[in-house]
Amino acid sequence: LRNAFFSPRILVNNPEIVDYSLAGLSRQYALEIDTMLVDDLRNFLFGAPASGGFDLASLNIQRGRDHGLRYYNDMREAYGLKRIETFDEIIDDPTVVEIMLDIYGTPDHMDPWIGGLAERHLHGAMVGETIAAVLRDQFIRLRDGDEFFYLNDFDLMSSDMMYGIIDLD
Fold first, then answer.
1. Which domain, by its residues, includes 96?
2. Which residues are the signal sequence here (predicted)?
3. Is there a single domain that holds both residue 81 and residue 11?
4. What is the Cα–Cα distance from 110 to 86, expressed in whole angstroms?
C-alpha cells in the first residue's frame, strides 16, 4: 500500500494495471472495520516515518475536532440513538475497552470516529449503529438534494429534459 501512495506514474506507465487491480480487489476479502489500522496507514501516509509519514488515525481524529464534531454520545443522540454509559455496551474486546477507559475515561469524551469504528456491528452489516446512521443520513441527503434522482417527481421537467438525461447515460 505504501508504494502506491501518490504514485500516479504507476498508472500512467502501466494503464493495464487498473484492470488487474480491480480484478484483484474483487477477489479479496476486505479486512473488518474496527479500531485496528494496517501499518501503512498508521506510519507511511505521505512518506516514511521521520520523512513525512503520517498516521491516518490521528489525522482523522484531529480533522473531526477541527471541524467541531461532537463527542461520540452527542453524535449518537443527534441521530436519535441511545447514549451509552459504558464502553462494554458497544465493544466486545476487553483490551479495547481498557484502552478506551485509559484514553477517554467515559464514552461522553470519546471521539466519534473512534467510537464508530469500535462499535459492535449491526447484524449482517460491516458497521455499527452510529456509522450506519451517518451513512443513512448522507445517502438520504444526496437523494433528496438531487432533483434528477429517478424516484423524484418528473412532472417538474419537460419530456425533452427527461430524454436528455436518459441520453446522457
1. 70-169
2. none
3. no
4. 11
